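Worked example

This section walks through a single chain of length 101. The input is the sequence exactly as stored; nothing has been trimmed or padded.
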Amino acid sequence: MKANLLIHNKKPLSHYEFIEIKVWEITEDKNFPEGVKYSMVYIRKDKNKFNRIFGFDNEKGKGHHMHLYDKEIKIEFHGWEDLLEQFYKKVEKLREDFHES
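Given that input, the structure is written out below as tokens.
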């Protein structure tokens, strides 16, 4: 599979958390019918270890899904704008929850 990195954006949110978004253009096939592979992740440091709190990806054989802590949940893919909007909204909500606790 040939992959062409289209987007790689890593953004610190504070000294203990960041988001990272990667999007590759790939050959369309049954695993990647849109011709793209992606990973969007929110990482937070806790007890000197960085952990994935939340993310979206479309790993081969799994299709579109999200990770929320240690759970993996299938999602419907309705386009990039929708997915990015969902990602940023969920990260914002999770950060609010962390700051309130």
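What to look for: The helical segments are 80-100.
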